[in-house]
Amino acid sequence: PTFLALHHLSLLGLPVAETYFVGAFSGVPFANAAWSGCLNFSNRFDLETVIDPKAPGFAELKRAESDRYRDSTERRISFIPGSMRDSRVYQSKVPEKLTSLLPYIAEPIRKYVPVVKPGDEFTAWASQFSAAQLRKIMPGKSVLYFDLNEVIRTYLILVLKNSQHPLFRFLFEPTIRKTVLDEFSPETPLFTVEVHHKNKIRQETVVFKDDMLQSQNFQLEVSPEIIIKALESGTLCPGLFITFTTLCFINALICFGSFEQVEYLAEFRRKWLKLGFLEQEIVRAVNTSALTSGRCIEESGVAVNPLDLLLGFRWSFMENQTVGELMRPLLPRLGIEV
């Protein structure tokens, strides 16, 4: 419901001939607040409407739904096995569970699902599926979903070969690195890694410590060759700090996002201006207040999911609705009484 609202809001202001780019941050575990790897729908539809009871593991899906019903009105079907809950979305592979369930998903959804097989790139498949849904719901729009972390990974592989680039100097010149991290925090996560720990796969954040890149169960020497190799292999995934410093404060891109993003980008800009290390004209001019958010609900107050619309729920966006009205359902989550 929140993503649907912000896409609607953003597309309202986009010229017809332009493409709407949606960057998905994949440097998170599957068990995150957005529930990557799940089909999310409302309680307007029962589980049997969304997936055929003949699907493998349906009884397990039914039990999970019953457990969730006690604590939440949100409904979802997970395509991700329990062993992958804490693993990283970035560069993950499509699990067999996903491909075994897809043939049993309701046809109104299934016809927008890209062809996929076990071992394919999960984020590529998920991006194509998400874009297909949005094009159906908002016809006539040019929509492109992409993996934000993959874009930054490719960028880093290129620029870390240039000793004059600010990211090269930050990572490999100790004096500059110390100055920057003293301002932001010595514990600033720069990358994430996926590690095997106690027979489980999980994501860990990587920081500088003792002139090494380290997490709880990982360490890496700091040199251009070693870090580039770790990026090429997919071992290192760019973290939030490097990702948005690259996009906003080095390349002057405006990144629309919700409440948290607006807050940390403003703080990033304040600190980069204080440091004077990056090109000040770019840092000063970039828009860090590009807020887009909201929640799609019908008159009864029940949230509207994109899959609800694909499954046949009749609903349309209100005409002449203000941004404030779209955001109103989110305010209680921020501790604001309405």
Describe the protein's architecture and organization.
The protein is of the alpha+beta class and about 350 residues long. The chain folds into two domains: about 1-150 and about 295-335, no CATH class; about 160-285, no CATH class. Helices cover about 40% and strands about 15% of the residues. The protein contains 15 helices and nine strands. The protein has a five-stranded antiparallel sheet. The protein has a two-stranded parallel sheet with strand order 1-4. A hairpin with a 2-residue loop joins β6 and β7 (about 210-215). The mean pLDDT is about 90.
Q: What's this, in brief?
A:
This protein has 15 helices and nine strands. With 338 residues, the chain is of the alpha+beta class.
Structural class: alpha+beta
Summed up, the helix count is: 15
Strand ordering within the main sheet: 8-7-6-5-9
What is the number of strand segments? 9
Rg: 21 Å
Low-confidence parts: none
The first-to-last residue Cα distance is: 19 Å
Give the overall shape.
Answer: globular
Helix percent band: 40-55%
- The overall number of domains is 2
Mean pLDDT: 92
Strand content: 5-15%
Q: Helices and strands, in N-to-C order?
A: HEEHHEHHHEHHHEEEEHEHHHHH
- Largest sheet report: 5 strands, antiparallel
